[in-house]
Fold:
Amino acid sequence: MLATSFILLGAAALGVNGHYAFPRVGGGSDWQQVRRADNWQSNGFVADVSSAQIRCFQSSPAAASASLNVTAGSTVTYYANQGIFHPGPMSFYLARVPDGQSVSSWNGDGAVWFKVYHEQPNFGSQLTWSSNGKTSFTVPIPSCIKAGYYLLRAEHIALHSASTSGGAQFYISCAQIGITGGGSTDPSNKVAFPGAYKASDPGILININWPIPTSYKNPGPAVFTC
Ligand SMILES: *[C@@H]1O[C@H](CO)[C@@H](O)[C@H](O)[C@H]1NC(C)=O
Ligand SMILES: [Cu+2]
Structure:
């Protein structure tokens, strides 16, 4: 009994310590257009880059009830439920729902994900990240990609404990969006999740504290631009 209360206290304290989730896009409400991630209550993270959860942080894929429409060439605002607390990069990826499939059942299988944004740190006496303390992120939607439904994957990699393998923390969710307008470009450099990252990638297995890095290599593919 004593042991149980101890564990519960520990879990509550972790939540207060400032982990986070990405539950909302646009003017929607939490988990309305964003597929409910496994950390919707815990604010926890994925540590194993080879697990199925590294895609959308869902252990049993389930769709959101709605999707958010945007025009190609505009932006989507993606929200965290509290300020980003840990040092590390934000990234966003898109994957187009194949023709003939539905945004409310497609699970994002295969080498279908292309990156539309990643964050580089500022270098100095320590690395600083523009995501730090922020609760909202402006995601660019490329102007030349094909109209249709997409999954938009938000990812923050917390690097404070990343000097040991498996120590980086991945905070992830996927929103359902419809893109209108656009062009006919099919981006190159598409990757699969899991598959895109290795635990030994230099942007994942890294000591950000000593020696202070003078460069940072974001994991995954280059950012796609039109
Ligand atoms: C939303 O986007 C999808 C995908 O492009 C499109 O089929 C649908 O017509 C759009 N809905 C509205 C209301 O614009
Ligand atoms: Cu944390």
Notes: The chain has one domain: 18-180. Residues 1-17 have pLDDT under 50 and may be disordered. The first helix runs from residue 2 to 16.
